[in-house]
TrEMBL record:
Keywords: Gluconate utilization, NADP, Oxidoreductase, Pentose shunt. Catalyzes the oxidative decarboxylation of 6-phosphogluconate to ribulose 5-phosphate and CO(2), with concomitant reduction of NADP to NADPH. GO terms for biological process: D-gluconate metabolic process; pentose-phosphate shunt. It comes from Beutenbergia cavernae (strain ATCC BAA-8 / DSM 12333 / CCUG 43141 / JCM 11478 / NBRC 16432 / NCIMB 13614 / HKI 0122). It catalyses: 6-phospho-D-gluconate + NADP(+) = D-ribulose 5-phosphate + CO2 + NADPH. This is 6-phosphogluconate dehydrogenase, decarboxylating. Pfam families: 6PGD, NAD_binding_2. Substrate binds at residues 102, 128-130, 185-186, 190, 260, 287, 446, 452. GO terms for molecular function: NADP binding; phosphogluconate dehydrogenase (decarboxylating) activity. The active site is at 182 (proton acceptor), 189 (proton donor).
Length: 477
Protein backbone atom coordinates (compact mmCIF):
# COMPACT_ATOMS: atom_id res chain seq x y z
CA UNK A 1 0.00 0.00 0.00
CA UNK A 2 1.52 3.24 -1.14
CA UNK A 3 -1.21 5.79 -1.75
CA UNK A 4 -1.89 8.56 0.78
CA UNK A 5 -5.43 9.10 -0.40
CA UNK A 6 -7.79 7.77 -3.09
CA UNK A 7 -10.37 9.36 -5.32
CA UNK A 8 -13.21 7.39 -6.85
CA UNK A 9 -15.35 9.24 -9.37
CA UNK A 10 -13.14 10.93 -11.93
CA UNK A 11 -15.49 13.20 -13.89
CA UNK A 12 -14.49 16.89 -13.96
CA UNK A 13 -14.55 17.43 -10.21
CA UNK A 14 -12.91 14.20 -9.06
CA UNK A 15 -10.29 14.42 -11.79
CA UNK A 16 -9.30 17.91 -10.77
CA UNK A 17 -9.27 17.15 -7.05
CA UNK A 18 -7.04 14.15 -7.73
CA UNK A 19 -4.68 16.30 -9.83
CA UNK A 20 -4.62 18.97 -7.13
CA UNK A 21 -3.68 16.35 -4.51
CA UNK A 22 -0.97 14.92 -6.78
CA UNK A 23 0.46 18.40 -7.38
CA UNK A 24 0.73 18.73 -3.60
CA UNK A 25 2.96 15.64 -3.54
CA UNK A 26 0.38 13.17 -2.30
CA UNK A 27 0.35 9.74 -3.89
CA UNK A 28 -3.19 9.44 -5.18
CA UNK A 29 -5.05 6.19 -5.83
CA UNK A 30 -7.51 6.50 -8.69
CA UNK A 31 -10.72 4.67 -9.51
CA UNK A 32 -13.76 5.28 -11.66
CA UNK A 33 -16.71 3.03 -12.54
CA UNK A 34 -15.83 3.40 -16.21
CA UNK A 35 -12.11 2.66 -16.30
CA UNK A 36 -11.50 4.72 -19.44
CA UNK A 37 -11.74 7.91 -17.38
CA UNK A 38 -8.99 6.66 -15.06
CA UNK A 39 -6.78 5.78 -18.01
CA UNK A 40 -7.26 9.15 -19.67
CA UNK A 41 -6.46 11.01 -16.45
CA UNK A 42 -3.15 9.21 -16.10
CA UNK A 43 -2.37 9.59 -19.81
CA UNK A 44 -3.12 13.29 -19.94
CA UNK A 45 -1.94 14.43 -16.52
CA UNK A 46 0.41 11.72 -15.27
CA UNK A 47 3.13 14.32 -14.82
CA UNK A 48 1.09 16.21 -12.20
CA UNK A 49 2.45 13.76 -9.63
CA UNK A 50 2.18 10.15 -8.52
CA UNK A 51 -1.02 8.30 -9.40
CA UNK A 52 -1.90 4.69 -8.62
CA UNK A 53 -4.71 3.74 -11.02
CA UNK A 54 -6.89 0.68 -10.43
CA UNK A 55 -9.63 -0.79 -12.53
CA UNK A 56 -11.13 -2.82 -9.68
CA UNK A 57 -12.33 -1.21 -6.46
CA UNK A 58 -10.61 -4.00 -4.46
CA UNK A 59 -7.23 -3.06 -5.93
CA UNK A 60 -7.93 0.62 -5.38
CA UNK A 61 -8.63 0.01 -1.68
CA UNK A 62 -5.62 -2.30 -1.38
CA UNK A 63 -3.36 0.45 -2.73
CA UNK A 64 -4.20 2.80 0.16
CA UNK A 65 -2.15 3.34 3.32
CA UNK A 66 -4.04 2.98 6.60
CA UNK A 67 -6.12 4.57 7.87
CA UNK A 68 -7.43 4.49 4.31
CA UNK A 69 -8.85 7.76 3.12
CA UNK A 70 -11.18 7.59 0.14
CA UNK A 71 -12.79 10.60 -1.49
CA UNK A 72 -16.01 9.79 -3.34
CA UNK A 73 -16.72 12.35 -6.06
CA UNK A 74 -19.67 10.92 -7.98
CA UNK A 75 -23.06 12.18 -9.03
CA UNK A 76 -24.92 13.12 -5.85
CA UNK A 77 -27.79 10.90 -4.71
CA UNK A 78 -28.23 7.20 -5.48
CA UNK A 79 -24.77 6.92 -7.06
CA UNK A 80 -23.16 7.96 -3.77
CA UNK A 81 -25.07 5.24 -1.89
CA UNK A 82 -24.14 2.69 -4.55
CA UNK A 83 -20.45 3.52 -4.23
CA UNK A 84 -20.58 3.49 -0.42
CA UNK A 85 -22.25 0.08 -0.48
CA UNK A 86 -19.50 -1.33 -2.67
CA UNK A 87 -16.72 0.33 -0.75
CA UNK A 88 -17.65 -0.35 2.86
CA UNK A 89 -17.13 -4.15 2.85
CA UNK A 90 -13.58 -3.53 1.64
CA UNK A 91 -12.68 -1.13 4.46
CA UNK A 92 -11.59 -1.64 8.06
CA UNK A 93 -12.24 0.12 11.33
CA UNK A 94 -10.85 3.63 11.45
CA UNK A 95 -10.85 4.15 7.67
CA UNK A 96 -12.23 7.43 6.38
CA UNK A 97 -14.84 7.77 3.66
CA UNK A 98 -15.22 11.30 2.31
CA UNK A 99 -18.22 12.32 0.22
CA UNK A 100 -17.15 15.47 -1.58
CA UNK A 101 -20.18 15.60 -3.89
CA UNK A 102 -23.11 17.95 -3.44
CA UNK A 103 -25.10 15.76 -1.07
CA UNK A 104 -28.21 16.99 0.68
CA UNK A 105 -27.28 17.19 4.37
CA UNK A 106 -30.01 14.81 5.67
CA UNK A 107 -28.46 12.13 3.42
CA UNK A 108 -25.09 12.91 4.97
CA UNK A 109 -26.51 12.58 8.49
CA UNK A 110 -27.98 9.19 7.54
CA UNK A 111 -24.76 7.94 5.91
CA UNK A 112 -22.60 9.16 8.77
CA UNK A 113 -24.71 7.28 11.31
CA UNK A 114 -24.64 4.10 9.24
CA UNK A 115 -20.87 4.16 8.74
CA UNK A 116 -20.16 5.14 12.34
CA UNK A 117 -22.06 2.02 13.43
CA UNK A 118 -19.52 0.04 11.39
CA UNK A 119 -16.51 1.75 12.91
CA UNK A 120 -15.81 3.93 9.89
CA UNK A 121 -15.48 7.69 9.72
CA UNK A 122 -17.80 9.31 7.21
CA UNK A 123 -17.00 12.86 6.23
CA UNK A 124 -19.56 14.77 4.20
CA UNK A 125 -17.66 17.71 2.82
CA UNK A 126 -18.74 20.72 0.83
CA UNK A 127 -16.42 21.68 -2.02
CA UNK A 128 -17.01 24.98 -3.77
CA UNK A 129 -15.31 26.59 -6.70
CA UNK A 130 -16.32 24.40 -9.62
CA UNK A 131 -13.78 22.64 -11.84
CA UNK A 132 -11.33 25.48 -11.69
CA UNK A 133 -11.43 25.57 -7.89
CA UNK A 134 -11.06 21.80 -7.59
CA UNK A 135 -7.82 22.00 -9.56
CA UNK A 136 -6.31 25.19 -8.22
CA UNK A 137 -7.74 25.50 -4.73
CA UNK A 138 -11.37 25.22 -3.68
CA UNK A 139 -13.08 26.24 -0.47
CA UNK A 140 -13.58 23.03 1.49
CA UNK A 141 -16.15 22.46 4.25
CA UNK A 142 -15.64 19.05 5.91
CA UNK A 143 -18.01 17.62 8.52
CA UNK A 144 -17.90 14.24 10.27
CA UNK A 145 -15.78 13.33 13.26
CA UNK A 146 -13.10 15.64 14.58
CA UNK A 147 -10.86 12.58 14.84
CA UNK A 148 -10.99 12.03 11.07
CA UNK A 149 -9.91 15.62 10.54
CA UNK A 150 -6.55 14.83 12.14
CA UNK A 151 -5.72 12.63 9.12
CA UNK A 152 -7.80 14.27 6.44
CA UNK A 153 -7.63 17.92 7.45
CA UNK A 154 -3.97 18.60 6.62
CA UNK A 155 -4.39 17.16 3.11
CA UNK A 156 -7.55 19.14 2.43
CA UNK A 157 -5.99 22.31 3.85
CA UNK A 158 -3.00 21.81 1.56
CA UNK A 159 -5.12 21.66 -1.59
CA UNK A 160 -7.58 24.39 -0.59
CA UNK A 161 -7.43 28.01 -1.68
CA UNK A 162 -5.33 30.30 0.54
CA UNK A 163 -6.12 33.88 1.49
CA UNK A 164 -3.32 35.75 3.28
CA UNK A 165 -1.69 32.34 3.72
CA UNK A 166 -4.72 30.98 5.58
CA UNK A 167 -6.36 27.83 4.12
CA UNK A 168 -9.97 28.06 2.99
CA UNK A 169 -10.70 24.80 4.78
CA UNK A 170 -11.50 24.05 8.39
CA UNK A 171 -13.37 21.46 10.40
CA UNK A 172 -17.02 22.53 10.29
CA UNK A 173 -18.76 20.21 12.75
CA UNK A 174 -20.08 16.67 13.21
CA UNK A 175 -22.59 14.75 11.10
CA UNK A 176 -24.05 16.72 8.21
CA UNK A 177 -22.54 20.08 9.24
CA UNK A 178 -20.17 20.31 6.27
CA UNK A 179 -22.79 19.70 3.63
CA UNK A 180 -25.20 21.97 5.50
CA UNK A 181 -22.76 24.86 5.40
CA UNK A 182 -22.12 24.21 1.70
CA UNK A 183 -25.87 24.31 1.12
CA UNK A 184 -26.18 27.69 2.86
CA UNK A 185 -23.17 28.91 0.87
CA UNK A 186 -25.09 28.09 -2.29
CA UNK A 187 -28.24 29.73 -0.95
CA UNK A 188 -26.28 32.91 -0.24
CA UNK A 189 -24.84 32.63 -3.74
CA UNK A 190 -28.40 32.64 -5.12
CA UNK A 191 -29.21 35.80 -3.11
CA UNK A 192 -26.00 37.53 -4.13
CA UNK A 193 -26.59 36.77 -7.82
CA UNK A 194 -30.20 37.96 -7.67
CA UNK A 195 -29.14 41.21 -5.96
CA UNK A 196 -26.52 41.81 -8.62
CA UNK A 197 -29.08 41.09 -11.34
CA UNK A 198 -31.51 43.57 -9.79
CA UNK A 199 -28.79 46.23 -9.56
CA UNK A 200 -28.02 45.65 -13.24
CA UNK A 201 -31.71 45.92 -14.14
CA UNK A 202 -32.11 49.15 -12.15
CA UNK A 203 -29.11 50.69 -13.90
CA UNK A 204 -30.40 49.54 -17.26
CA UNK A 205 -33.94 50.80 -16.75
CA UNK A 206 -33.11 53.84 -14.65
CA UNK A 207 -30.28 55.14 -16.80
CA UNK A 208 -31.03 53.51 -20.12
CA UNK A 209 -27.36 52.50 -20.01
CA UNK A 210 -25.92 49.83 -22.29
CA UNK A 211 -24.69 46.49 -20.99
CA UNK A 212 -21.09 47.58 -21.56
CA UNK A 213 -21.59 50.86 -19.68
CA UNK A 214 -23.04 48.91 -16.77
CA UNK A 215 -20.07 46.55 -17.06
CA UNK A 216 -17.85 49.59 -16.46
CA UNK A 217 -19.87 50.48 -13.37
CA UNK A 218 -19.50 46.96 -11.97
CA UNK A 219 -15.77 46.99 -12.72
CA UNK A 220 -15.53 50.24 -10.74
CA UNK A 221 -17.56 48.78 -7.87
CA UNK A 222 -15.17 45.85 -7.78
CA UNK A 223 -12.47 48.20 -6.49
CA UNK A 224 -14.42 48.99 -3.27
CA UNK A 225 -16.49 47.33 -0.53
CA UNK A 226 -18.31 45.17 -3.06
CA UNK A 227 -15.12 43.57 -4.38
CA UNK A 228 -15.94 39.94 -5.04
CA UNK A 229 -15.75 37.17 -7.59
CA UNK A 230 -19.42 37.60 -8.55
CA UNK A 231 -19.10 41.36 -9.15
CA UNK A 232 -15.92 40.75 -11.15
CA UNK A 233 -17.49 38.16 -13.45
CA UNK A 234 -20.60 40.33 -13.82
CA UNK A 235 -18.43 43.10 -15.29
CA UNK A 236 -16.82 40.54 -17.55
CA UNK A 237 -20.14 39.08 -18.75
CA UNK A 238 -21.60 42.54 -19.39
CA UNK A 239 -18.62 43.50 -21.53
CA UNK A 240 -18.86 40.32 -23.58
CA UNK A 241 -20.19 40.73 -27.13
CA UNK A 242 -22.00 37.90 -28.92
CA UNK A 243 -19.93 36.85 -31.92
CA UNK A 244 -22.92 35.78 -34.01
CA UNK A 245 -24.99 38.96 -33.70
CA UNK A 246 -22.61 41.65 -32.45
CA UNK A 247 -25.09 42.34 -29.64
CA UNK A 248 -24.26 42.46 -25.98
CA UNK A 249 -24.06 38.81 -24.94
CA UNK A 250 -26.50 39.31 -22.04
CA UNK A 251 -29.12 40.44 -24.58
CA UNK A 252 -29.03 37.19 -26.54
CA UNK A 253 -29.40 34.92 -23.51
CA UNK A 254 -32.95 33.72 -22.80
CA UNK A 255 -34.17 35.29 -19.55
CA UNK A 256 -35.01 32.07 -17.74
CA UNK A 257 -32.70 31.13 -14.87
CA UNK A 258 -32.37 27.46 -14.02
CA UNK A 259 -31.47 25.79 -10.75
CA UNK A 260 -30.13 22.48 -9.60
CA UNK A 261 -31.74 22.51 -6.17
CA UNK A 262 -29.39 23.81 -3.49
CA UNK A 263 -31.31 27.11 -3.28
CA UNK A 264 -34.52 25.17 -2.85
CA UNK A 265 -32.99 22.99 -0.13
CA UNK A 266 -31.79 26.08 1.71
CA UNK A 267 -35.23 27.65 1.60
CA UNK A 268 -36.94 24.42 2.66
CA UNK A 269 -34.59 24.19 5.64
CA UNK A 270 -35.17 27.88 6.45
CA UNK A 271 -38.87 27.09 6.67
CA UNK A 272 -38.22 24.00 8.81
CA UNK A 273 -36.11 25.97 11.25
CA UNK A 274 -38.32 29.06 11.11
CA UNK A 275 -35.45 31.32 10.05
CA UNK A 276 -36.48 34.22 7.79
CA UNK A 277 -33.97 33.86 4.97
CA UNK A 278 -35.99 36.18 2.77
CA UNK A 279 -33.12 37.14 0.46
CA UNK A 280 -32.39 33.52 -0.44
CA UNK A 281 -36.09 32.71 -0.75
CA UNK A 282 -36.79 35.69 -3.02
CA UNK A 283 -33.80 34.78 -5.16
CA UNK A 284 -35.01 31.19 -5.51
CA UNK A 285 -38.56 32.31 -6.34
CA UNK A 286 -37.26 34.92 -8.80
CA UNK A 287 -35.61 32.10 -10.76
CA UNK A 288 -38.89 30.18 -10.60
CA UNK A 289 -40.79 33.25 -11.85
CA UNK A 290 -38.37 33.70 -14.72
CA UNK A 291 -39.12 30.13 -15.78
CA UNK A 292 -42.91 30.46 -15.39
CA UNK A 293 -43.42 30.74 -19.13
CA UNK A 294 -47.22 30.37 -19.41
CA UNK A 295 -47.76 32.84 -16.57
CA UNK A 296 -45.38 35.36 -18.09
CA UNK A 297 -47.03 35.01 -21.48
CA UNK A 298 -50.47 35.51 -19.95
CA UNK A 299 -49.29 38.61 -18.08
CA UNK A 300 -47.05 40.25 -20.68
CA UNK A 301 -48.87 43.08 -22.41
CA UNK A 302 -51.98 42.33 -20.34
CA UNK A 303 -51.22 43.50 -16.82
CA UNK A 304 -50.92 47.29 -16.81
CA UNK A 305 -47.95 49.06 -15.21
CA UNK A 306 -49.30 52.60 -14.84
CA UNK A 307 -45.82 54.03 -14.81
CA UNK A 308 -44.11 56.75 -16.79
CA UNK A 309 -40.61 56.40 -18.24
CA UNK A 310 -38.07 56.49 -15.39
CA UNK A 311 -36.34 59.83 -15.30
CA UNK A 312 -33.21 59.76 -13.25
CA UNK A 313 -32.11 63.33 -12.56
CA UNK A 314 -28.52 62.81 -11.48
CA UNK A 315 -26.71 59.83 -12.96
CA UNK A 316 -23.88 59.72 -10.42
CA UNK A 317 -26.22 59.98 -7.45
CA UNK A 318 -28.36 57.18 -8.87
CA UNK A 319 -25.39 54.89 -9.48
CA UNK A 320 -24.15 55.49 -5.94
CA UNK A 321 -27.67 54.87 -4.57
CA UNK A 322 -27.82 51.53 -6.38
CA UNK A 323 -24.37 50.60 -5.09
CA UNK A 324 -25.29 51.37 -1.50
CA UNK A 325 -28.65 49.61 -1.79
CA UNK A 326 -26.85 46.57 -3.19
CA UNK A 327 -24.35 46.54 -0.34
CA UNK A 328 -27.05 46.93 2.31
CA UNK A 329 -29.22 44.20 0.77
CA UNK A 330 -26.19 41.96 0.56
CA UNK A 331 -25.45 42.45 4.25
CA UNK A 332 -29.04 41.42 5.01
CA UNK A 333 -28.80 38.29 2.84
CA UNK A 334 -25.56 37.20 4.50
CA UNK A 335 -26.87 38.07 7.95
CA UNK A 336 -29.86 35.81 7.30
CA UNK A 337 -27.66 32.99 5.99
CA UNK A 338 -25.46 33.13 9.09
CA UNK A 339 -28.62 33.11 11.25
CA UNK A 340 -29.62 29.92 9.51
CA UNK A 341 -26.25 28.35 10.27
CA UNK A 342 -26.61 29.36 13.93
CA UNK A 343 -30.14 27.95 14.12
CA UNK A 344 -29.10 24.66 12.50
CA UNK A 345 -26.03 24.42 14.69
CA UNK A 346 -28.23 24.71 17.78
CA UNK A 347 -30.94 22.42 16.42
CA UNK A 348 -28.62 19.61 15.30
CA UNK A 349 -25.91 20.11 17.95
CA UNK A 350 -23.10 21.01 15.56
CA UNK A 351 -21.37 23.89 17.36
CA UNK A 352 -20.40 25.66 14.13
CA UNK A 353 -18.05 28.65 14.38
CA UNK A 354 -19.64 31.21 12.04
CA UNK A 355 -16.56 33.41 11.91
CA UNK A 356 -14.54 30.43 10.67
CA UNK A 357 -17.12 29.78 7.95
CA UNK A 358 -16.77 33.35 6.69
CA UNK A 359 -12.99 32.86 6.76
CA UNK A 360 -13.03 29.74 4.58
CA UNK A 361 -15.38 31.44 2.10
CA UNK A 362 -12.89 34.25 1.44
CA UNK A 363 -11.20 32.27 -1.31
CA UNK A 364 -11.85 29.39 -3.68
CA UNK A 365 -15.64 29.55 -3.65
CA UNK A 366 -18.25 31.40 -5.68
CA UNK A 367 -19.17 33.94 -2.98
CA UNK A 368 -15.53 34.80 -2.22
CA UNK A 369 -15.39 38.46 -1.32
CA UNK A 370 -13.46 41.09 0.55
CA UNK A 371 -16.48 41.70 2.76
CA UNK A 372 -16.24 38.23 4.35
CA UNK A 373 -13.29 39.49 6.40
CA UNK A 374 -15.73 41.86 8.06
CA UNK A 375 -18.02 38.97 8.95
CA UNK A 376 -15.16 37.00 10.50
CA UNK A 377 -14.19 40.09 12.50
CA UNK A 378 -17.78 40.54 13.68
CA UNK A 379 -17.94 36.98 15.05
CA UNK A 380 -14.47 37.37 16.56
CA UNK A 381 -15.77 40.38 18.48
CA UNK A 382 -18.80 38.38 19.63
CA UNK A 383 -19.02 34.66 18.89
CA UNK A 384 -22.64 34.60 20.05
CA UNK A 385 -23.74 37.63 18.02
CA UNK A 386 -27.52 37.18 17.61
CA UNK A 387 -27.69 39.21 14.39
CA UNK A 388 -24.86 40.06 12.03
CA UNK A 389 -26.60 43.38 11.26
CA UNK A 390 -26.26 44.29 14.93
CA UNK A 391 -22.46 44.19 14.79
CA UNK A 392 -21.31 47.84 14.97
CA UNK A 393 -19.46 47.67 11.64
CA UNK A 394 -22.50 46.35 9.77
CA UNK A 395 -24.96 48.58 11.62
CA UNK A 396 -22.95 51.60 10.45
CA UNK A 397 -22.36 50.27 6.95
CA UNK A 398 -26.09 49.74 6.40
CA UNK A 399 -27.05 52.99 8.13
CA UNK A 400 -24.75 54.88 5.75
CA UNK A 401 -26.65 53.48 2.79
CA UNK A 402 -30.12 53.56 4.25
CA UNK A 403 -31.41 56.68 2.49
CA UNK A 404 -30.08 55.37 -0.82
CA UNK A 405 -31.68 52.01 -0.20
CA UNK A 406 -35.09 53.57 0.51
CA UNK A 407 -34.86 55.81 -2.58
CA UNK A 408 -34.00 52.86 -4.81
CA UNK A 409 -36.72 50.55 -3.50
CA UNK A 410 -39.30 53.35 -3.69
CA UNK A 411 -38.15 54.33 -7.18
CA UNK A 412 -38.28 50.74 -8.36
CA UNK A 413 -41.83 50.34 -7.03
CA UNK A 414 -42.93 53.60 -8.59
CA UNK A 415 -41.42 52.73 -11.92
CA UNK A 416 -42.46 49.11 -12.09
CA UNK A 417 -39.00 47.55 -11.92
CA UNK A 418 -39.15 44.22 -10.04
CA UNK A 419 -36.68 44.17 -7.16
CA UNK A 420 -37.82 41.27 -4.98
CA UNK A 421 -34.49 40.84 -3.20
CA UNK A 422 -33.74 44.57 -2.69
CA UNK A 423 -37.30 45.20 -1.47
CA UNK A 424 -37.65 42.20 0.80
CA UNK A 425 -34.25 42.86 2.34
CA UNK A 426 -35.32 46.38 3.23
CA UNK A 427 -38.62 45.05 4.60
CA UNK A 428 -36.65 42.56 6.70
CA UNK A 429 -34.40 45.35 7.97
CA UNK A 430 -37.39 47.48 8.97
CA UNK A 431 -39.12 44.46 10.46
CA UNK A 432 -36.25 43.23 12.57
CA UNK A 433 -35.52 46.71 13.94
CA UNK A 434 -39.21 47.60 14.60
CA UNK A 435 -40.16 48.62 18.14
CA UNK A 436 -43.45 46.81 17.72
CA UNK A 437 -44.77 44.58 14.95
CA UNK A 438 -48.35 43.98 13.78
CA UNK A 439 -47.80 40.37 14.82
CA UNK A 440 -49.85 41.41 17.88
CA UNK A 441 -52.90 41.63 15.62
CA UNK A 442 -52.17 38.25 14.07
CA UNK A 443 -51.92 36.65 17.49
CA UNK A 444 -55.26 38.27 18.48
CA UNK A 445 -56.89 36.94 15.30
CA UNK A 446 -55.52 33.47 16.03
CA UNK A 447 -57.05 33.61 19.47
CA UNK A 448 -60.34 34.82 17.97
CA UNK A 449 -60.87 32.00 15.49
CA UNK A 450 -58.86 29.18 17.02
CA UNK A 451 -58.47 29.90 20.74
CA UNK A 452 -54.72 29.81 20.16
CA UNK A 453 -54.11 32.10 23.17
CA UNK A 454 -51.78 35.10 23.48
CA UNK A 455 -49.33 36.63 25.91
CA UNK A 456 -49.73 40.17 27.24
CA UNK A 457 -47.20 42.98 27.23
CA UNK A 458 -47.98 43.83 30.86
CA UNK A 459 -47.93 40.46 32.64
CA UNK A 460 -46.59 36.94 32.34
CA UNK A 461 -48.67 33.92 31.51
CA UNK A 462 -50.90 32.85 28.64
CA UNK A 463 -54.38 34.25 28.04
CA UNK A 464 -57.54 33.61 26.05
CA UNK A 465 -60.51 35.89 25.41
CA UNK A 466 -64.04 34.43 25.09
CA UNK A 467 -64.59 36.04 21.71
CA UNK A 468 -67.95 34.42 21.00
CA UNK A 469 -69.17 34.90 24.57
CA UNK A 470 -68.89 37.78 26.96
CA UNK A 471 -65.32 38.64 25.88
CA UNK A 472 -63.96 38.06 29.32
CA UNK A 473 -60.31 37.13 29.56
CA UNK A 474 -59.10 33.99 31.24
CA UNK A 475 -55.57 33.06 32.15
CA UNK A 476 -54.61 29.61 30.95
CA UNK A 477 -52.86 27.28 33.34
P1 LIG B 1 -21.11 14.18 -12.25
O1 LIG B 1 -22.01 14.73 -11.21
O2 LIG B 1 -21.42 14.42 -13.67
O3 LIG B 1 -20.97 12.59 -12.00
C1 LIG B 1 -20.23 11.77 -12.87
C2 LIG B 1 -19.40 10.80 -12.08
O4 LIG B 1 -20.23 9.97 -11.24
C3 LIG B 1 -18.65 9.85 -12.99
O5 LIG B 1 -17.39 9.57 -12.42
C4 LIG B 1 -19.56 8.64 -12.99
O6 LIG B 1 -18.90 7.45 -13.35
C5 LIG B 1 -19.96 8.60 -11.55
N1 LIG B 1 -21.15 7.78 -11.33
C6 LIG B 1 -22.42 8.09 -11.66
N2 LIG B 1 -23.25 7.11 -11.25
C7 LIG B 1 -22.48 6.16 -10.67
C8 LIG B 1 -22.75 4.93 -10.04
N3 LIG B 1 -24.01 4.45 -9.93
N4 LIG B 1 -21.72 4.21 -9.54
C9 LIG B 1 -20.46 4.68 -9.63
N5 LIG B 1 -20.14 5.85 -10.20
C10 LIG B 1 -21.14 6.59 -10.71
O7 LIG B 1 -19.59 14.63 -11.97
P2 LIG B 1 -18.98 16.04 -11.53
O8 LIG B 1 -17.52 15.84 -11.53
O9 LIG B 1 -19.57 17.18 -12.25
O10 LIG B 1 -19.47 16.20 -10.01
C11 LIG B 1 -19.13 15.26 -9.03
C12 LIG B 1 -19.79 15.67 -7.73
O11 LIG B 1 -19.29 16.94 -7.34
C13 LIG B 1 -21.30 15.80 -7.80
O12 LIG B 1 -21.85 15.36 -6.59
C14 LIG B 1 -21.51 17.29 -7.95
O13 LIG B 1 -22.75 17.71 -7.47
C15 LIG B 1 -20.37 17.83 -7.11
N6 LIG B 1 -19.92 19.17 -7.42
C16 LIG B 1 -19.80 19.58 -8.71
C17 LIG B 1 -19.37 20.86 -9.00
C18 LIG B 1 -19.20 21.26 -10.42
O14 LIG B 1 -18.89 22.44 -10.63
N7 LIG B 1 -19.38 20.39 -11.38
C19 LIG B 1 -19.01 21.80 -7.95
C20 LIG B 1 -19.07 21.25 -6.63
C21 LIG B 1 -19.53 19.99 -6.40
P3 LIG B 1 -18.82 7.00 -14.90
O15 LIG B 1 -17.64 7.70 -15.48
O16 LIG B 1 -18.65 5.53 -14.82
O17 LIG B 1 -20.11 7.39 -15.55
Amino acid sequence: AVADIGVTGLAVMGRNLARNLARHSYTVALHNRTHARTVSLVEEHGDDGTFVPSERLEDFVASLKRPRTVIIMVKAGAATDAVIDELVPLLEEGDIVVDAGNAHFPDTIRREEALRAQGLHFVGTGVSGGEEGALNGPSIMPGGTRESYATLGPMLEDISAKVDGVPCCTYVGPGGAGHFVKMVHNGIEYADMQLIAEAYDLLRQGLGASAAEIGDIFAEWNTGDLESFLIEITADVLHHVDAATGSAFVDVVLDQAEQKGTGRWTVQNGLDLGVPITGIAEATFARALSGSVPQREAARGTLPAHTAAWEVKDRDVFVEDVRRALYASKVVAYSQGFDQIAAASAEYGWDIDRGAMARIWRGGCIIRARFLNRITEAYERDAGLPLLLADPYFTDAVADGLQSWRRIVAGAAQNGVPTPAFSSSLAYYDGVRAERLPAALIQAQRDFFGAHTYRRVDSGGVFHTEWSGDRSETQES
